[in-house]
Amino acid sequence: TWTRKPGLLQGPAEDVRSSDTPIVYEITLEPTQRPWLVALDVPLQAPANLHMSNDRALFARERIGDLRQYRARSVIRYELAGELAERDRKRALDLPNGFDPKTHALASQWRGAGQSDAAIVQSALALFEASFTYTLSPPLLGRNSVDEFLFDTKAGFCEHYSSAFVVLMRAAGIPARVVTGYQGGWWNALGNYLLVRQSDAHAWAEVWLHGRGWVRVDPTAAVNPARVEGRASADSEAQNWTPGSWLLGMRNRLDLINRLWTQSIVQFNALRQKSLLSPFGISEAEQEDLLLALGSAIAVILLLATAWVLHSGTAQRVDALDASWNRLRARLGRRGLVSRTAEGPFDFMARTRHRIEEPDVQQRLEQLVHAYVTLRYAVIEPDPAAVSAFAKAVGEFHLPRAVRVRD
Length: 407
Fold this sequence. Notes:
The protein is α+β, with helices and mostly antiparallel strands. It is 42% helix and 14% strand. A three-stranded antiparallel beta sheet has the order 3-5-4, with no helix packed on it. It has a three-stranded antiparallel beta sheet with strand order 10-13-14. It has a two-stranded antiparallel ribbon with strand order 1-7. Helix 2 (101-112) crosses helix 5, helix 3 packs antiparallel against helix 5 and helix 13 packs antiparallel against helix 14 (384-396).
C-alpha cells in the first residue's frame, strides 16, 4: 500500500526552477471531503488560506466540505529538486523487505548490465510496451503483487503500472515515487474553461535523475497511449460515453448553466448582499428587501442564462447515422415493412425476413441492418467515413415495384 508520510506536510517545498512565464488561473473546486486541492503542475506557491507540502501538493487543514474558489500560479516546464536531500533520497528508495523477489532480480540484472538510470527507465517502459494490456477489470493479485503483475497477469490500469514501475526503479537504486492526480479533462468552448471530473483521475510516477531533478514518467502511456493522449479535446476518450455529438453539445451547455449558478448564486456572500440595493438608495438592505430583490434577480438570471446557453453556439447537429437508418425504415414502411416502436433492428429483420421474395434484395437489406447495428452499438463513436458509406448504401437501396413483398 502506498501512503503519504506525515513529514511531507512540514518543511519547505522542493526547489523549482523555470524560465517560463507563470500561468495565472482560477479554480472552482466542488466539495471532495478530502484536504487535497488541485492545481496545474507545478504550483509556485500556496494560494491564500491554503498550504503546500514538501512535494508541492496543495492542501487545506480541514476537509473540503463546501465549494472553494482560488487563484494559483504554476509553470508547466520546470526543474524540480535539482538537489535531493539525503532524507528525501532514502525515502524515495524505501521498499519493504521480503516482497517481490523476481522484480528485485530483474532490476539487479539491468543495473548489473551497466545501464544508466535513464536507460533503466527506458528498459521498464519497453517491458510494458512489449506484452502488457490496459484494462479496468484486472485479475486479483496476491502477496507478491508486483511480481504477479509483471510476470503473470500483465494486465491492469494506471495504478498497477505506476506502482510496479516505482518498485522496479527503487529496486534498481533510482529514487522514485508514485504521483496521483488528474489528467486532461473536458474543454468547454462556450464558457472557455476546463472541466475536470473524478473520471479524469490518473496515476503517474516520478524518478529523480542527476542533473534533471524529478522527471515525470507515465508508464501507462507505454501500454495504452489512447488513455493519456488528447484528454482535453472535444473528441477525447473521456467524453465519448455520450452516444452522439448532439448530446455532448447539450452536456456542454448544461454544465455552463451550472457554472453560471455557482458564480452568480453560490458565491453571493454577505457583503455583496448588503450592498445589493445601494444603486436604489438603500445602503443597508433589510432581509425582506433582499429576499424580494434576490428572488427576482435569480429568476431573471436563470431565465436569460438558460435561454442563451441552450441557443448559443452552432445549431444542434442531427445524428447522420440515425438519419440514414430512419430513411431506410421509412422507405421499407411505404412498402408495408413497418418496424415497430419497441423493435430492435435484428428483431425487425427476423420478423420480415420471409416477406421479400427476391433473395438478393433480402440479402442487401440484411447487410444494411448489420452495418447499422455495428456502427451504432459496437463502437463508442462511429467512424465518419463508415457513416458516410452507410448513408450512400441506404440511398442506393430501393425496393423496385417488381419486387414482391408478401402480406
